[in-house]
């Protein structure tokens, strides 16, 4: 059975790519990822490995004489540079860990005089650098019965999404979706709040979307907040939807009424333990909830153990897996999934594509009876990538809703909350 086939042309100068074939739509914080067959032009920051899209801290200072500036974080020296007399700005500091921290700037002039400046910072993927944009524009037919049928496509769909950094502390986004029976438009933003030595959140986000469908008009409001620091991470989000709100990828038999999500990360014995709770109710008076506990444990330089426990109104799922690094491009992953009285075991070999021309592949087998294959190749002397994926029917590609393999961890909480009813990360109408 065919899963995916696609062609991709990369444009490194624009940090973007053009894809044709079986694709997954990209969208805003409130949009569902949807499988479709068609064409998509989207940003691709990884084409420029030295480019950092999110907002970084900026130092402002002034010196009357030529001086040397040294920058530290957690006693680690990040950079040293010479500054000319007068006011100066230091920007583009890297590498820095995501979350909250403090920078120390030490300025020494020719007379040996020294001044020390302390500046807190906060780095999050929610905030893009001013002038930097993440975008995706797509058109095609929605994929149906993915994992069950090779070539089943439904109604046409067009989508457009863009997220742009306006200032170091504000990033806005908008998204438009349109199909014959559904049209949705929405906008939102993320704001950096002032620094406080407390549990007060550092970033808040909100979005508002309106829709038109066969049942009439609807609206959705989402509010969220986050704080990341060395002592722990915290994020929360709530959402409210009217009865007739609709969007691409939404299940017709589950009209969301309200959602809630809390995620906490705690450092424990040099490892991170992540605890999450997700709840969603529908206008059909159905409720879904899920409590999760996950951690990745580094055994040595080449071996990592991942453990995830999910418990909800549909039962309990336990996933444990080992990831072995064979070389810079090759890994072997084995995992065992247990849901109630059912147990599945899978083994996967993955060889990533090289930075230039070459081939990558990912064969996998589950329960010794359900093989799957995913392959990519980049053609010589051009930025073109071909992708193909196949599997036996009803092969469960992911172990549980909202989670990848143990080596990569769970999806972002926002996406996990929306993926509860499905066992695949991107929606395809069935």
From TrEMBL:
GO terms for molecular function: fimbrial usher porin activity. InterPro entries: Fimb_usher. GO terms for biological process: pilus assembly. It holds the Pfam family Usher. GO terms for cellular component: cell outer membrane. This is Fimbrial biogenesis outer membrane usher protein. It comes from Laribacter hongkongensis (strain HLHK9).
């Amino acid at each position: 059975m065919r899963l995916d086939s696609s062609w991709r042309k990369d444009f490194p100068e624009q940090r973007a790519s053009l894809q044709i074939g079986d694709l997954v739509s990209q969208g805003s914080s409130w949009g569902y990822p949807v499988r479709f067959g068609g064409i998509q032009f989207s940003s691709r920051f990884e084409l420029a490995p030295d480019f950092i899209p999110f907002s970084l801290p900026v130092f402002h200072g002034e010196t009357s004489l030529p001086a040397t500036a040294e920058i530290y974080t957690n006693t680690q020296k990040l950079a040293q540079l010479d500054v000319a007399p007068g006011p100066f700005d230091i920007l583009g500091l890297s590498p820095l860990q995501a979350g909250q921290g403090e920078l120390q700037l030490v300025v020494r002039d020719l007379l040996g005089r020294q001044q020390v400046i302390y500046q807190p910072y906060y780095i999050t993927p929610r905030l893009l650098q001013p002038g930097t944009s993440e975008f995706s524009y797509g058109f095609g037919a929605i994929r149906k019965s993915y994992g069950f049928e090779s070539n089943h496509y439904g109604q046409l769909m067009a989508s457009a999404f863009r997220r742009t950094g306006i200032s170091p502390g504000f990033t806005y986004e908008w998204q438009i979706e349109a199909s014959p029976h559904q049209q949705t438009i929405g906008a939102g933003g993320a704001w950096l709040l002032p620094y406080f030595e407390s549990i007060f959140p550092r970033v808040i986000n909100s979005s508002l979307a309106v829709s038109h469908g066969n049942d009439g008009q609807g609206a959705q409001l989402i509010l969220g907040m986050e704080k990341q620091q060395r002592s722990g991470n915290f994020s929360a989000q709530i959402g409210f939807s009217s009865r007739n709100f609709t969007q691409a990828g939404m299940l017709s038999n589950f009209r969301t009424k309200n959602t809630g999500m809390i995620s906490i990360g705690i450092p424990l014995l040099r490892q991170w333990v992540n605890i999450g709770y997700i709840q969603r109710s529908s206008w059909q008076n159905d409720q879904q909830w899920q409590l999760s506990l996950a951690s990745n444990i580094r055994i040595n330089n080449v071996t990592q153990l991942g453990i995830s426990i999910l418990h909800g109104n549909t039962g309990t799922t336990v996933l444990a897996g080992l990831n072995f690094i064979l070389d810079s491009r090759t890994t072997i992953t084995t995992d065992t999934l247990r849901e109630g009285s059912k147990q599945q075991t899978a083994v996967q070999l993955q060889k990533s594509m090289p930075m230039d021309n070459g081939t990558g592949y990912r064969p996998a087998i589950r329960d010794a009876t359900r093989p799957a294959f995913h392959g990519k190749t980049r053609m010589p002397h051009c930025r073109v990538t071909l992708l193909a994926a196949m599997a036996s029917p009803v092969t469960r590609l992911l172990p549980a809703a909202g989670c990848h393999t143990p080596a990569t961890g769970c999806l972002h909480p926002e996406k996990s909350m929306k993926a509860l009813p499905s066992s695949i990360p991107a929606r395809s109408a069935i």
